[in-house]
Amino acid sequence: MGRYRYLFSQLVRRELRRKYKGSSLGVLWYLINPLVLLGAYTLMFGHVFRLQHFSDFPVFLMIGLMAWTFFAQSLLAAAESLIDQGSIVRRARFPRETIPAAAVTVQLATFAAILVLLTPLSLALRGSSEPASLLLLPVLVILLFGFALGCALIVSVLHAYFRDVAPILSAALLPWFFLTPIFFSPATIPFVIRHPFVGTLLDWVNPIAPYIDGFRSILYYGTAPSLGRIVYVFVAAALALSGGLTVFRMMEGELAVVV
Question: Which of 169, 164, 153 is nearest to 247 (CA)?
């Protein structure tokens, strides 16, 4: 794979340039868009339709929004990536998984930039975190990247064969977004307290929720995630990545024809 490192870096740069080509702010839109969403959601769910009370609600919200946006945008970008790069797929022989991987890496750059800004802000507002918990932050980022990459490999190769996959994905992400604990904490919802199985569905069956909870544990509550959370996100990343690579390699044989 080392000999394809240059190709991978060029694919990442090409995707960065292509997305906001002709825009006066260029790649700064990668940061502006989530900040605009933060302002809108803080107004609506922090003041107009307040579900629960959290001190420093913008920080609470931004942690969840940051992780979700990276995951969702990675899948959406990867879904179209093989078709967008069809001319390269048809002309050259190289590991085709580098194309959706480049799309996810572009989103990782945005995620990392926001995390760099959010971490000192959160520490200043919420107080110091345990040093050990901060050491887990890059590990959690890597695991979320692996989980998103595994899912991205699957949707990218499926969409190359079945062009309904990307629209279905876009439709599915909307209800998934509101069922994910971005604006709320399942543990403190009265209905969940009365019916604990609902909290289990929101908090454990939803595979992105433990990642968000892990980031919140470190950045918002100042403690390390529980051992159960750490095991969950590690296993989820490993399963997604291995499953994604398996599905991609099973289906990549005809990519040069279908794209």
Answer: 153
Q: What is the spatial distance between Cα 152 and Cα 244, in angstroms, rounded to a whole number? A: 7
Nearest by Cα to 122 from 57, 34, 42, 35: 57
Q: Which residues contact 85 (CB under 8 A, 6 or more apart)?
A: 11, 99, 259
The answer to whether 155 and 165 are in contact (CB under 8 A) is yes
Token match 């901060």: residue? 134
Classified as helix, coil or strand, 206 is coil
3-state percent breakdown (helix, strand, coil) of the chain, nearest 5: 80, 0, 20
Q: Are 111 and 17 in contact (CB under 8 A)?
A: no
Q: How far is CA 202 from CA 181, 185, 212, in A?
A: 7, 9, 12
Structure tokens at 209: 């929720």
pTM: 0.83
Of 103, 208, 109, 111, nearest in space to 157 by CA: 103
Q: Which helix (DSSP H) or strand (DSSP E) does residue 118 occupy?
A: helix 98-126
Q: What is the pLDDT of residues 205-248, one digit of tens each?
A: 899 999 999 999 999 988 999 999 999 999 999 999 999 999 99
Q: How far is residue 229's CA from residue 223's CA, in Å, rounded to a whole number?
A: 13
Task: Give SS3 for 183.
Answer: coil
- Give 50-62 pLDDT, tens digit per residue: 556 677 878 888 8
Nearest Cα residue to 134 out of 212, 65, 60, 223: 223
